[in-house]
Design a protein that fits this description.
By secondary structure, the chain is α/β, with parallel strands linked by helices. The chain has one domain: Rossmann fold, CATH 3.40.50.300. It contains seven helices and nine strands; from the N terminus they run βββαββααααβαβββα. The strands form two sheets. A six-stranded mixed β-sheet has the order 5-6-7-3-8-9, sandwiched between helices. β6, α6 and β7 form a beta-alpha-beta unit. α5 packs parallel to α6. It is globular and about 50 Å long. The relative contact order is 0.19.
Amino acid sequence: MVTVKTGKPSQPIIVCRDVVAGYGQETVLHKVNLEITAGDYLPFIGPNGAGKTTLLRIILGLLRPRSGQVITPFRNKPPGYVPQIKNIDPLYPVTLFQIVSMGLYPKLGWSQRMSREDREFVYKTLDEFDLLEHASKRYAELSGGMRQKAVVARAFVTGADVFVMDEPTSELDENSEKEVFSHLFRLSREKAKTVLFAIHSLEHIAETAESICAVNHGCVTLMPKSEFMACREALLRSQEQ
């Protein structure tokens, strides 16, 4: 069992023990052992089809493992799931403020009106995500980066302690991608949130991620970023020979 070390309390909040998972006759994950501590900012890196999405679905509880054990704190406090922006209809007739306010629905229900304190909290959140001046804009008017930050802010107002994202910047340009990752890193460091996300490249998080969850051909390995980079360089050199 390997634990991500980030200088935070060592007690893990998410644990996978000998997890095997797949779809139909296909096995995607093989004997995964994984421990994640509170406040980790952890990228899941690997090629397409490697099992990153399956692993995140296992952690979220959206997919049951064939065998093994998964321990999470989500029964007491659900995670904040952040979908890719391509999964949200850009023509949905709501404002940015309304999108973020949807994060309060689990607490308020669909019929209860927001209190003044609720509205102030949403506006404060928009301000923290540099979205306040765009609060009244329709979702379709927002840039890709603002749309993605909006769904992250929506997850934040739920009060979740763990955020889980599958390719959160796959549809964004380079500047928007950097901006979104900057806000995700702040959630971890300034708000003590646990941030888990699948990506293909370390390009825009190389200076912030301390550890990497490498997923390849169903095998999952947690390692320091420096070790991951050394392995990647060795692989590239071997491919050039």
